[in-house]
Amino acid sequence: MPHVTFVYPCVGRFPTTRYVRSWQMQPLAIAVLAALTPADWQKTFYDDRLEEVDYDRPADLAAISIETYTARRGYQIAAEFRRRGVPVVMGGYHATFCPEEVLEHADAVCVGEGEGVWGDILRDAAAGRLSGIYSSPPSPTIEGARPDRSIFYGKNYFKIAMVETGRGCRFRCSFCSITAFHCATYRRRPVDETVTEIKQLKEKAVFFIDDNVIGDV
């Protein structure tokens, strides 16, 4: 059974300094990818903000999500996996905006939202042909984007649950990475789907992480 290791890098820290507690929140995008991972794949998740990454644990693929402020640390983590012969795919905002740079540090890059190409990436990784840039086609809906929160179990996160009700923003502000990433589009989840997810949460506090919470009045 193939094994994928998800990693969420930290910004970086000084050896004697604790990581900022309020930044230690659940990375929802990785949980969504975990939910899309077929049952015939084993899954492991390391949050670099909370724990040490076990590079020596057997893996057939390392999937690392990076922002610009975590890219340098992400490249360090990728180098450790690749040094052990584990192929690496990187995604996220920085990977989407700077794919050629990221490809210098990874075997493959996901451009755009992972949902559209995650299955292709896993199939290619299992077949030993993971390579290049995987561009996700624009999706008209995020219906069914339910995260697999089981990957968070046992991790000491800030006691707040992240929930997504909508994604993107229809405005074209020149300074904003959100509108550039989503091409000034906005999509929302069905209300009943969001309500069902909230009812199943164990946390009593919810943080709606929408890019524009009133994107669809």
How would you portray this structure in words?
The protein has 217 residues and is an alpha/beta fold. 26% of the residues lie in helices and 19% in strands. It is built from seven helices and ten strands. The protein has helices at residues 28-36, 71-83, 93-97, 99-103, 118-126, 177-182, 191-199, and strands at residues 3-8, 42-47, 61-65, 88-91, 108-111, 132-135, 161-163, 166-168, 186-188, 206-208. The protein has a six-stranded parallel beta sheet with strand order 2-1-3-4-5-6, sandwiched between helices. It is globular, with a radius of gyration of 17 Å. The chain starts with a strand and ends in a 9-residue tail after the last strand.
What would the keywords be for this entry?
217 residues, six-stranded parallel sheet, alpha/beta
- What structural class should be given to the helix and strand makeup? alpha/beta
User: What strand line-up does the widest sheet have?
Assistant: 2-1-3-4-5-6
So how many helices? 7
Oligomer status: single chain
Strand count, sense and barrel status of the largest sheet are: 6 strands, parallel
N- to C-terminal distance: 46 Å
Query: Helix fraction?
Result: 25-40%
pLDDT averaged residue by residue: 91
Q: Globular, elongated, flat, extended or rod-shaped: what is the shape?
A: globular
Element order: H for helix, E for strand = EHEEHEHHEHEEEHEHE
The total of beta strands comes to 10
Question: How large a portion of the residues is in β-strands, by DSSP E?
Answer: 15-25%
Residue ranges: pLDDT <50 for 5 or more in a row? none
- Give the C-alpha Rg: 17 Å
